[in-house]
Write a structure and sequence with these properties.
8 helices; single chain; 5 strands; alpha+beta; elongated; Cytidine Deaminase, domain 2
Length: about 220
Amino acid sequence: MLVQEKMKTYGAKVLTDSELLSLIIGNIAGRKGKGAVEMADKVMESLPQQKLYYLGETCVQELTAIKGIGEKSALALCAAVELGKRMRQEEVKQQAPDFSTPQAIAGYVMEDMRHLPQEEFRAVYLTTKNQLIAVQTLTIGTINSSLAKSREVFRYALRYNAAAIVLLHNHPSGNPEPSHEDIVVTQRIADAAQIMEIPVLDHIIIGDGTFVSLCERGYI
């Protein structure tokens, strides 16, 4: 059965990653049937661990280096992945008017952070009603006292006139269990927050499809 017919009959959810990619490639590049699927397989094989997530992190130049993938196809593929991430974020925002819960925040950033190659330390800024104002990346690299400086956290809090903050970072290993350094940095920033009168509600560590809330663990 052709991919197009399979999707018409059973819906997009039954298609493999390669089959979904083949539809985009076929529409953009004019390839049909087996040719589009073969090109999609080549794209999947080029991705780390053959995970579709990395397509959104792949630059256009890397994709066009694959024989048969032109610039239009590369741009369309990356745009499709990014659109999927944003749709997921909007879905979470609509379903979670109270954005202070670890489940809401983890759901919002999971697809964006779960496979990052380096640790990224971010801060989530909330209104007085715990509605999302912004998620700001503060540092990239191992989280420690020299990188995750309190002043960066509160500089943006003042800029956004935020009423509360949730700290956030990922573990590239996929294991969200907090390290001793994670706990020390969290408590140092939380102490500074008391002085600034802008409370730190939580520090959420993102793993591969899972997360840990330091508030729930009793560290805040």
